[in-house]
């Protein structure tokens, strides 16, 4: 059975542009269109707002959406009524959600930037591996979010929002409490502005970086579904596996270093003769692994991972709970790093590690050759 994906829509409770009398709220098409896309994908959607309960729709968006079939379907189906019974932040179990989404409208500019309660929920979700997404002014919801490291969630990230030029074109320049583009830049974001009122989606992660890579795209078409139904550690009979592989991404930096259950599985597999391999930040999975003699699995091993220099290059040094290269050296690893984003695979007995995303394929090829030679 396919795992349930749950999406939390975080909408505004604010209905007026300051004290101007100009009505605002959440924007109809920015709720209705994502709602239809997510619903068609069989995602379960819940709604939350700062105050809970009934939330205001921007009246101008209702006019604009009169000829939009997705907007009209959202209204006629009764889905719009769900915005009258939104959850309050205190009612949300954030661990239930794999996707966080902030729709726009000018309302979020007034009640989200200083909302520490919602910011804390988003921080928890993001550091637990959830996708955090937003459109237009909804990105104002990112402004108060700080990670466990203390830095802004947007620092070093490539993103976008309604631009200063678009704010001026809509004659709202003097009605908003601040300019969102300017704020995001001041928080350290790599802000990408597209042409005025033209589609512009920014994804700083791997899906965007490897959209032209045929192997990655083939996996998305044929293999990615398996990641929706992963096993828990307690479901795994580790004796059945000849290869243990830790994939990268920044997520492992937060949930693997202290996971003793997975660490014990890895130790058992390795001492049972399995090849243990990892790429990029996936090598952090080896950090908690201790062998039967009490020593770290990496002690004395020639090993690599995403380097301190690469972390600095992508401007995420301060977002990390620790620097992986430094940690591996501290554990006694013989760390070998190459130039930024150059292929680098290190083999040390039955431990194979790759430095960065370009090293993933060559790392896998080395593992295959080891297994076949055994």
Q: What's a quick, concise take on this entry?
A:
Keywords: Lyase, Stress response. The protein has helices at 28-40, 59-64, 69-76, 108-111, 116-127, 164-169, 180-186, 206-209, 214-222, 252-255, 260-271, 308-313, 324-330, 360-373; strands at 6-10, 44-48, 99-102, 131-134, 158-159, 190-191, 243-246, 275-279, 302-303, 334-335, 345-348, 351-354. With 374 residues, the protein is an alpha/beta fold.
How would you describe this protein?
By secondary structure, this protein is α/β, with parallel strands linked by helices. The chain folds into two domains: 6-199, 3-Layer(aba) Sandwich (Rossmann fold); 231-373, Rossmann fold. The chain contains 14 helices and twelve strands. A four-stranded parallel beta sheet has the order 2-1-3-4, with helices on both faces. Helix 1 packs across helix 3 (69-76). It is elongated and about 70 Å long. The chain starts with 5 loop residues before the first strand and ends with a helix. The mean pLDDT is 89.
Report the sheet with the most strands, covering strand number, pairing sense and barrel closure: 4 strands, parallel
- Name the quaternary structure: single chain
As a percent range, the share of helical residues equals 25-40%
Q: What is the average per-residue confidence, as pLDDT, rounded to a whole number?
A: 89
% residues in beta strands: 5-15%
Number of domains: 2
Instruction: List the helices and strands in order.
Output: EHEHHEHHEEHHEHHEHHEEHHEEEH
Shape: elongated
CATH class of the largest domain: Alpha Beta
Overall structural class, as computed from helix and strand content, comes to: alpha/beta
């Amino acid at each position: 059975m396919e795992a349930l994906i749950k999406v939390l829509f975080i909408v505004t409770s604010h209905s007026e542009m300051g004290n101007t009398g100009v009505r605002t709220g959440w924007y109809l098409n920015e709720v209705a269109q994502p709602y239809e896309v997510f619903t068609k994908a069989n995602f379960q959607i819940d709604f939350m707002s700062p105050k809970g309960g009934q939330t205001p729709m921007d009246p101008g968006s209702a006019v604009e959406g009169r000829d939009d079939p997705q907007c009209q379907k959202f209204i006629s189906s009764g889905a719009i009524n769900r915005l009258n019974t939104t959850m309050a932040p205190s009612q949300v179990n954030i661990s239930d959600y794999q996707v966080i989404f902030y729709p726009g409208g000018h309302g979020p500019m007034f009640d989200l930037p200083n909302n520490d309660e919602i910011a804390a929920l988003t921080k928890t979700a993001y550091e637990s591996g959830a996708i955090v997404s937003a459109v237009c002014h909804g990105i104002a919801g990112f402004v108060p979010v700080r990670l466990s490291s203390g830095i802004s969630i947007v620092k070093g990230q490539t993103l976008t929002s309604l631009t200063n030029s678009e704010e001026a074109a809509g004659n709202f320049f003097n009605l908003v409490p601040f300019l969102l583009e300017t704020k995001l830049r001041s928080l350290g974001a790599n802000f990408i502005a597209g042409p005025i009122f033209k589609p512009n989606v920014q994804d700083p992660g791997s899906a965007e970086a490897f959209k032209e890579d045929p192997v990655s795209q083939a996996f998305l078409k044929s293999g990615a579904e398996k990641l929706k139904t992963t096993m828990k550690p307690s479901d795994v009979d580790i004796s059945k596996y000849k290869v243990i592989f830790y994939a990268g991404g920044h997520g492992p930096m937060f949930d693997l270093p202290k996971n003793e259950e997975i660490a014990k599985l890895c130790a058992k597999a390795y001492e049972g003769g399995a090849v243990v391999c990892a790429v990029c930040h996936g090598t952090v999975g080896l950090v908690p692994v201790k062998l039967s003699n009490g020593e770290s699995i990496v002690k004395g091993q020639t090993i690599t991972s995403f380097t301190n220099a690469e972390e600095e290059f992508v401007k995420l040094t301060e977002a990390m709970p620790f620097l992986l290269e430094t940690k591996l050296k501290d554990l006694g690893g013989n760390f070998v790093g190459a130039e930024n984003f150059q292929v680098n695979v290190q083999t040390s007995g039955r431990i194979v590690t790759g430095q960065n995303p370009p090293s993933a394929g060559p790392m896998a090829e080395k593992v295959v050759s080891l297994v076949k030679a055994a």
